[in-house]
Amino acid sequence: MPQFPLPHVHRLTPCLRQIMATLLALSLWGSAFAQDKEPSPYSLRIIGGLAGLNQYTKNEEPFWTKDLPRLSGGRFTADIVPFDRTGVPGKDILRLIQLGVIPFGTILLSSVAAYYPQFAAPDLAGLNPDMPTLKRNLAAFRPFLESELRSRYKIEMLAIYVYPAQVVYCKQPMTKLSDLSGRRVRVSSITQSDFMAALGATPVLTGFVQIKSSLIANQLDCAITGTMSGNTVGLHEVTSHIYAMPINWGLAFFGTNSDAWDGMPPDLRALLRNELPKLEQKIWAESERETADGLACNRGAPSCSKGRRGAMIEVRPSAQDDKKSLEILSTAVLPRWIKRCGVTCADIWNRTIGPLNNIVAASPP
Fold first, then answer.
1. Which residue, of 12, 97, 129, 234, has the greatest Cβ tally within 10 A?
2. What contacts 88, CB < 8 A, 6 or more positions away?
């Protein structure tokens, strides 16, 4: 770990002081892992996705702690912690991988979109009403994402993960998208905020663990979150209606510092290049199943298998709602994203995702 001359801390910018605090947090985290453990032939330290969700507990964690040692005959091992338990803000992880402080990390795109808006393109609110559409748009954007991370940020992207569909839970009855007008709606990303504001709703940025208590305290009328994650924290107990249109999904990419990657044993790189695409496919299949199972559990259907059965009313989007969502994407979400991102992003959109959806992005004035 680099040593900072403490007498000069007062000269650091607020941003650098935050980075310094983050480095210290990572140092302590690494020290905690090192205690009472015998050194392995080659051990990796991984920052994974969100704690408690299936992407992490059923897929990422078992891959690194069990599959990697098994596949390598014990030569390679790994420790992993979810990023929301490292003490490192999600928005800082990309920068710290770039600096080489974190060798491997999972980065939720919504957590960095305010600072790196170009990465929000494949999951803009209103863009992907179903998973096949999401896969198609991501496939068009992925070559740019890989190239951008490698050339500008010295990050080798190894996989892209997806969370289940992000849908709307409401305490009050609703039958259509426009019913959200005037309501206070929990959002977790800038593009969700743009979408809700265009509907006439009041977007309220709220942490995931605070959603249920905020609904109970009447600080929120509705909340956008995952179909199963909402069930896991008990939103079916405090809301009555669930609107089944995916506002968006929640993409994350798994990457490594390019220099760290180049310095790894060739057989480790080959193993990860072979196995991480399989992990990616497994996570996508799990997210698709979980999207459907979350809806089933929230409405109390007999097919519910993983969650707790509620008694919510599931509202299916109408053809008019589908048209309204696309209109909001074209006239509000996309232009506001371009305004934050700049003329380069308009060009990126028009070369990748735009043609697939017959939507042209105008360059900002």
1. 97
2. 22, 25, 26, 47, 96, 102
pLDDT tens-digit profile of 170-179?
999 999 999 9
pTM: 0.86
Map out the domains of the chain as residue ranges: 15-164+250-290, 166-249+303-356
Burial of 18 (0-12, 13-18, 19+ CB in 10 A): middle
pLDDT in tens, 282-341: 999 999 999 999 999 999 999 999 899 999 999 999 999 999 999 999 999 999 999 999
The CATH superfamily assigned to 166-249+303-356 is Bacterial extracellular solute-binding protein, family 7 (3.40.190.170)
Q: Which two tokens stand for residue 192?
A: 């969700």
Q: Which residues contact 122 (CB under 8 A, 6 or more apart)?
A: 128, 134, 137, 138, 140, 141, 142, 145, 251, 353
15-164+250-290: CATH number: 3.40.190.170
d(CA 168, CA 325): 14
Helix (H/G/I), strand (E/B), else coil: 314? strand
